Amino acid sequence: MPVYGRLGDLLGHKALFLGGIGVFLAGSVVAGAAQDMTMLIIGRAIQGLGGGGLMITSQAVIADLVPPRQRARYMAPIGAVFGLSSVVGPLLGGWFTDGIGWRWCFWINLPVGALALAVGAYALRVPRRAVKVVFDYVGFVLMAAAVTCTVLVTTWGGTQYAWSDPLIIGMAVGGLLTWVLFFLSQRRAKEPIIPLWLFRSRIFNTATLIGLLVVGIGMFAIIGYLPTYLQMVYGLSATESGLLLIPMVVGMMATALPSGRLMSSTGRYKIFPIVGTVLVCAAALLMSTLDTETPLVLVCVYVFLLGAGLGGTMQPLVLAVQNDFPASDVGTATSANNFFREIGSTLGTAAVGSVFAHRLADQLAERLPADAAGPVGDTHSLTPALVHSLPDKIQDAVILAYQHALTPVFRYLVPVFLLGLLLAFLLPEKKLADGNDDDPEVTPAVQPGETGPDNAEVSAPTGR
User: Fold this and answer.
1) What backbone torsions phi and psi does residue 451 show, to the nearest 5 degrees?
2) Who contacts 32 (Cβ-Cβ below 8 Å, separation ≥6)?
3) Residue (of 203, 440, 436) closest to 321 by Cα position
4) Which run of H or of E encompasses 244?
5) Do residues 278 and 284 touch, judged by C-beta distance below 8 A?
6) What pTM did the predictor assign?
7) Within 13 A of 2's CA, how many CA atoms are on the CB side?
8) What is the percent of the chain with per-residue pLDDT over 70, rounded to a whole number?
9) Where are the extended beta strands (E) located within 223-304?
10) How many CB atoms lie within 10 A of CB 128?
């Protein structure tokens, strides 16, 4: 993400946008044709290399074409489509897997991607830039190492390996060291991937922290475990549990689209992250009250409330960040904001998973008789199909254990959301500008005449 954002600001976003589609399609071909797990993983990695660019450049292209005040009208549908696809995608994947085969999860990307390439190449008209790029290879390697260590520590720690395992400790130390070295390298790089002058902006820092806490941790931690909870406790199929996330998409669209219009008409954005965070916090509290007797209709109401909060939070935060920088730096700022949000989703999902796994092990030990431990297995081997094949008495005990293990974890997220709410109140509000760089209200976080990360004087933004 940060590489695409920085290169897009230097070279122009259209070529990178089309290139991201092409790389994603190449990864789809490799994954769809995979004959073993290694090849499938390689294909997925290639898809990630392309997908990271699509997420960033799609938002940066809007910034190229539309001034900040009108941008809200366009960013809101992007957020709504993101929420819709996060539900529809897994549903389609399950349908393909149950029907014509899992490989069509990848083959379906080819005609859709070809259409996107054709439309983008023909219809997309964005400014071009002619800048000689000096790529930050050292920063890229250090960042890749730091992210890899972070993801593996949070994914494996407390699950495949104990937190005290030498492998986990070694990767944690390695991750911390490479993060430090990465940010030190950004001070000296001629074209840094994440310029340190971004962090001089209070708006960037505050909005990024809110996104990390509320969207990154909140959204992904909750929707990562809720479908399995519905399968375990209510006996639903994977497809049915996925369909029950549709109210979240409806909630996102119900707030994202009107908030976009209101931001465009008023030029103000601060109220939306405040209200959105309150709704997310309320949804987490309500979800912590779920039990085996809660009607599914009420679950849908809670999920709708979560979506409404996220819809009012996600795009206003991105828009606030973009509005604080000139168009020449929008891709860099947007990619860094999204990058740290994704780090939050990784850490949040892992933390919730670790706490849940420990609670589930304790609940199973407390509720199951000794002779039932064998058929049930450990916490990692539990699946909805296995649980619902057990004798009724053991099945009821496992379901209760699962419910008592997960629902309190939602309550544990409330302090995280309250911290996000405090930050939302502290978020500086700069009225959305009616024009791009040449608008007097659009001022970069680093003013002309100040020194940038390489001690070079920062020139005034060029009007477009």
Assistant:
1) -95, 140
2) 43, 103, 104, 105, 106, 107
3) 203
4) none
5) no
6) 0.76
7) 26
8) 86
9) none
10) 10
